[in-house]
Amino acid sequence: MRKSLLSLFFSLCATVAFVASASADCGSCSGCSAGTDCTSGGAVAMGDGAGVMMGDGAACGPTYETRTVMQSQYVTETRMVPTVQKVMQTRQRVRNVTKRVASVQTREQTYVVNVPETRSRTETYSVQVRVPYTEEVPYTVNVPVVETKTQSYMVSVPYTEQVEQPYTVSVPVQKSREESYQVCVPYTEEVAQNYTVQVPYTETVTSTYQVCVPYTETLTQSYNVQVPYTEAKTSTYSVQVPYTETVEQPYTVSVPYTEQVAQNYTVQVPVTTQVEQSYTVQVPVTETKTAMRSVTKCVPVTTMKSVTTEQGSYQCQMVEAAPAAAMSSGAGCGSAAGCGGGCDTGCSSGCDTGCSTGCSSGCDSGCGASAGASMASGASCGPTYTYRQVYVSNPVTTEVPVTSYQQQTTEEPYTYTTTSCTTETKTRMVPVTTYTSEARTNMVNVTKYRTEQKSRTVTVQKCRTEERTKDYTVTLYRTETKTREVPVTRTKMETRTKETLVNKCRTETMTKMVPVTKTRMEARTRTVPYTEMTTEARSRMVTIQKCRQEERTREYQVTSCKTEQRSRTVNKVRCETQQQSREVAYMVNVPQTRSRTYNVTVYNCVTEQVTENYNVCVSVPGQKAVTVRVCHQVPVTVTVPVSSGCSSCGSAVSSPVMMESAPVMEAGAGCTNCAQ
After folding, report:
1. Residue 5 contacts by C-beta under 8 Å, 6 or more apart in sequence?
2. 539 contacts 166 by C-beta, under 8 angstroms
């Protein structure tokens, strides 16, 4: 755009320079006196109706020539643009697959078996033998002794007192408070609908209630008092008096002796046999299976996209300029200096020599109908036109193919190898050890005891019972009835009335709009009655029974025991240890080493190479045809003025105007015979 504007500016400057040079060359014309074809007054006639603004004197037209000027022009071209496409290719690769191959191996195992063996040994053992003996043993005897003691004790004597007791009473008090609450008021839109609302209001209701009123009465109360008194009593008790007696006592003695006894015992003898055993083996089996898998590919998709491009250009348009001043009879196309009278005044002496031809051709063609502007006798000159570059917008919308890649998922079959194990049953010989029971006999020395009866003299301590008496004092209580005045608080029921505020609701009909229902929250207040309990402090006289402590004395007898040391002869038996020996048979397990063979299934890992196919997305370069709008410099043929008319034909053109792309002037217009 900037280049096109600069080229247009330079072309305009060149045109203005040529016009200036043409107007300067018009002064060298020799005039009509020399017999040249010079017009004394007139305008330059254009082939397409374009005119040149006149000066003050006669119209002297310039000479034009054709030149080539470079002009910017947008051309739509198709160019090849490099592109990259994603193409899915299938390739192969070798992958290592590990398989487990089963093989059976025979191995030898050494094991140890314990074989029982009977052996004998001589062992020494100890025997406890009972030996009797006599021993003098001291002992302690407790002899009872009776003593009389005096004891002080405390007695609680009851008595009563009148005590003032404070107590509290809860008295109900009726109060009311203001309470705020929220009411959900519905309102609707669009459709009117009637609905009912419960509106709360308060009423005063008189109700009766029962009150428990306390009052105090004085009552005569009978009560019992325990009065102590003392009595003397005699009691009989028994006493155990010990004494000693000599008694003949028989006793039993166990005498040990040894006997040979045959003892039966059972021995487990091992027996090894070969038993056929069934076992299972997992044999690997390779299978080739076919399955479907999802494969995602990038697929090119060509869509048409509307693209709007600006293909406007600068065009040369003819614009009407400001109108020229009306030519009077002195200067213009009138009778004095116009085309009609110009020939009479300027060409009176030389019309036969060629002025008639110049006037007729110049005036008739300059102001005639062929010039495109009516310039008759007495009329004003026609409008003046000029050319200018105007940018004409030309938005062109074209459909351009656009290639995009979309992922498409397809199901493709593929094969894979699976290894599964099948169970096979085989047999083998396995050594099995069983044990058989054998009964055996051996002689065992057994120690037994025989019982023998013996007698001995023993001193035995016995007790005889003796009856004895004693005097003691007992404190008893007799019950006496007394009376007293006791204040008693009682209650009586009284009927009272109270006024209570009761909340009720009345039904009101309102209107709402349906189908859209909304609600708004409104804050309201109401008076709510409630009851509070007020605590009042009161006092009353209460009779309290108390006890005072009095100290008294009494005598009592205490039986104590006195310790005395005595001795006696006791027969005892002690055990003495004697050493004896005997033969004992015992079993010993002797280890023996044996060997056996067994089969073992061993799995070996074998690596194989497997060829598999896989897809690769490869970038492939290419070319794509794209429509491009390019600006080129195009040669344009332009007609420019190079000279103006002669000096005797009047003044030169005062304000020449250069038009781009002006057409060639017709023959006979302007100064045709002016010297260059």
Report:
1. none
2. yes
Show the CA angle centred on residue 552, arms to residues 546 and 557, nearest 5°.
135
Cβ burial of 504 (10 Å; 0-12, 13-18, 19+) is: exposed
Q: Are 61 and 671 in contact (CB under 8 A)?
A: yes
DSSP state of 378: T
CB 348 within 8 A of CB 319: no
Q: What are phi and psi of 27, to 5 degrees?
A: -75, -15
Q: Taking each helix axis as running N to C, give the angle between helix 339-346 and helix 356-367, from 0 to 180 degrees, rounded to the nearest 10.
A: 160
Q: 11: which 2 tokens?
A: 């072309």
Q: What is the pLDDT of residues 200-259, one digit of tens each?
A: 888 888 888 888 888 888 888 888 888 888 888 888 888 888 888 888 888 888 888 888
- Position 487 in a domain: no
Element spanning 40, H or E: none
Question: Strand locations in 313-384, DSSP E?
Answer: 313-320
Q: What are the DSSP calls for 326-377, one per residue?
A: PP-SSSSSSTTTSHHHHHHHHSTTTIIIIIHHHHHHHHHHHHSGGGTS---T
Q: Which residue carries 């498409």 as its tokens?
A: 408
Q: Residue 357 has what pLDDT?
A: 39
pTM, to two decimals: 0.18
Distance CA 20, CA 652 (A): 11
Q: Residue 383 belongs to what domain range?
A: 2-78+306-398+627-643
Sequence letter at residue 422: T
Residue 463 tokens read as 């007790």
Distance of CA 286 to the CA centre of its chain: 47
Residue 44 CB neighbour total at 10 angstroms: 27
Q: Which amino acid is at 488?
A: V
Residue with tokens 């349906």: 514
Compute φ and ψ for 328, nearest 5 degrees.
Answer: -85, -175
3-state secondary structure of 6: helix
With respect to residue 560, please indicate whether it lies within any of the assigned structural domains: no
For the chain, the residue count is: 676
Q: Which H or E element spans position 367?
A: helix 356-367
Instruction: Tell me whether residue 353 is in a domain.
Output: yes
For the chain, residues with pLDDT lower than 70 are 1-4, 16-62, 321-383, 643-676
58 neighbors 41 (Cβ within 8 angstroms): yes
pLDDT score for 666: 37
C-alpha 295/C-alpha 411 separation (Å) is 6
- In Å, what is the CA distance from 595 to each residue of 269, 366, 419, 430? 19, 146, 37, 12
The per-residue b/e assignment along 106-120, b for 16 or more CB within 10 angstroms, e otherwise, is eeeeeeeeeeeeeee
Residue 547 makes CB contacts below 8 A (sequence gap 6+) with 156, 157, 158, 159
Q: Give the pairing of strands 385-392 and 395-513.
A: unpaired
Angle at the Cα of 75 (from 74 to 76), degrees rounded to 5? 125
The answer to whether the bond into 515 is cis (omega within 30° of 0) is yes
Q: Residue 279 in contact with residue 386, Cβ under 8 Å?
A: no
Decide if 242 is inside a domain.
Answer: no
Secondary structure, 3-state, 521-535: EEEEEEEEEEEEEEE
Residue 560 identity: S
User: DSSP secondary structure string, 74-94?
Assistant: EEEEEEEEEEEEEEEEEEEEE
Residue 52 buriedness (CB in 10 A; 0-12 / 13-18 / 19+): buried
Report the number of distinct structural domains present in the chain: 1
pLDDT of residue 21: 55
What is the Cα–Cα distance from 483 to 221, expressed in whole angstroms?
5
